[in-house]
Design brief:
With 85 residues, the protein is of the alpha+beta class. The chain has two helices and four strands, in the order αββββα. It has helices at 2-38, 72-83, and strands at residues 42-44, 51-53, 59-62, 65-68. The chain is rod-shaped, with a radius of gyration of 26 Å. Zinc ion is lined by residues 45, 47-48, 50, 69-71, 74. InterPro entries: TRASH_dom, YHS_dom.
C-alpha cells in the first residue's frame, strides 16, 4: 500500500516537473518576442521629449512630417499649439 502511494507521488512529481519545464520554455519564447518588439525604432515626443515607439497610436502628420507622442495629452497639446497660431 505504501509502495503504491510512493509510485503515485513519483508520477505526479514527474508530471509537475514536465509542465514546469514546458512553461519555462514558453516564457523564454515570450521573452524572445519582447526583444523583437524592443527593436522598433524610437521617436522623440515633440512635446515632453520622452522617447516612444514608432508604432505608437499617438501620432500626427503635419507639413509632411510625422510627429510621435507618448500620450493623447501630448498629442492634443501639440495640435493646440500648431493650430491656434
Ligand atoms: Zn509626452
Amino acid at each position: 500500500m505504501i509502495m503504491k502511494i510512493f509510485v503515485l507521488v513519483a508520477i505526479l512529481a514527474g508530471i509537475y516537473f514536465f509542465f514546469k519545464i514546458k512553461d519555462k520554455k514558453q516564457d523564454e519564447q515570450k521573452y524572445a518576442d519582447n526583444e523583437e518588439v524592443k527593436a522598433v525604432e524610437m521617436k522623440q515626443d515633440a512635446v515632453c521629449g520622452s522617447y516612444v515607439e514608432e508604432t505608437t497610436k499617438y501620432k500626427v502628420r503635419l507639413h509632411d512630417k510625422i510627429y510621435y507622442f507618448c500620450s493623447e495629452e501630448c498629442k492634443n497639446q501639440f495640435i493646440d499649439e500648431n493650430t491656434n497660431h
